[in-house]
Design brief:
Layout (H helix, E strand, L loop, with lengths): L34 E3 L2 E7 L13 E5 L13 E2 L15 E6 L2 E2 L12 E6 L24 E6 L14 E6 L53
Antiparallel strand pairs: 1-2, 2-3, 4-6, 5-7, 8-9
Pfam family, one: TSP_1
InterPro entries: Compl_asym_regulator, TSP1_rpt, TSP1_rpt_sf
Protein name: Thrombospondin type 1 domain protein
Length: 225
């Protein structure tokens, strides 16, 4: 039995025909994190041998190190929630409305990426348009005062209809005065009254004339005739 030291590359003495091949070292591993080893901070790395024996060197090596804490990530600013939409700037014909959001600035001097305002169109339907007013109509009276004249307009076709009246009126009068009303008065001398029972054309009875005044006094101090 022959003894040899692994890792030194030494072969058993007098074993030239043993057929043992010399190994090849692998690449070194990454350094391990710093850790406390035998009272000191150190980190290590390792390698392997392809056979039982590799020429020179060792399977591991160490070096002192200093524990470095990973830096904390710097907080980044971010946008808050969008606010409610504003009212539309126009009731028809195309307007705009907008909403805003605030940047949550968690670091001094930091700015959010993007816009703080969002705008979109609204009320794009065409506006209602009134036609021109018509001419004033003829006065409702042909003489005197107390008449009315009017004019009209119409609304173009649209969604909600035009705002306002479709007609206007105002008082008017005629330049021609009205004739005075005719009043029927009884005649100064009433016609003779005919009293008859004959038909169809009875003779007329003519009332006699008054007699002369009598000399008789009555209680109311009036004369009879």
């Amino acid at each position: 039995t022959y003894a040899y030291t692994i890792g030194t590359g030494a072969l058993p003495g007098g074993c030239a025909t043993c057929g043992v091949q010399v190994g090849v070292w692998s690449e070194w591993s990454e350094w391990t994190p710093c850790s406390m080893l035998m009272g000191a901070m150190s980190q290590s790395r390792f390698r392997t041998c392809s056979t039982v024996s590799c020429p020179g060197g060792s399977f591991s090596e160490s070096k002192p190190c200093t524990m470095v804490h990973d830096p904390q990530p710097v907080p980044q600013p971010h946008w808050g929630e969008w606010g409610a939409w504003s009212g539309c700037s126009a009731s028809c014909g195309g307007g705009t409305m907008q909403r805003t959001r605030a940047c949550v600035d968690v670091c001094t001097g930091c700015q959010c990426v993007g816009s703080a305002t969002e705008i979109q169109s609204c009320n794009t339907q065409p506006c209602c348009v009134w036609s021109e007013w018509s001419s004033w109509s003829e006065c409702s009276v042909t003489c005197g005062t107390g008449g009315v004249t009017y004019r009209t307009r119409h609304c173009s076709t649209c969604l909600d209809g035009c705002v306002g009246p479709t007609s206007e009126q105002m008082p008017c009068s005629s330049d021609r005065p009205c004739p005075a009303p005719q009043i029927d008065l009884p005649p100064a001398n009433p016609p003779d009254v005919c009293i008859s029972c004959y038909l169809p054309k009875p003779p007329c009875l003519t009332c006699s004339i008054y007699s002369t005044w009598s000399n008789r006094w009555v209680r109311d101090a009036k004369k009879l005739r």
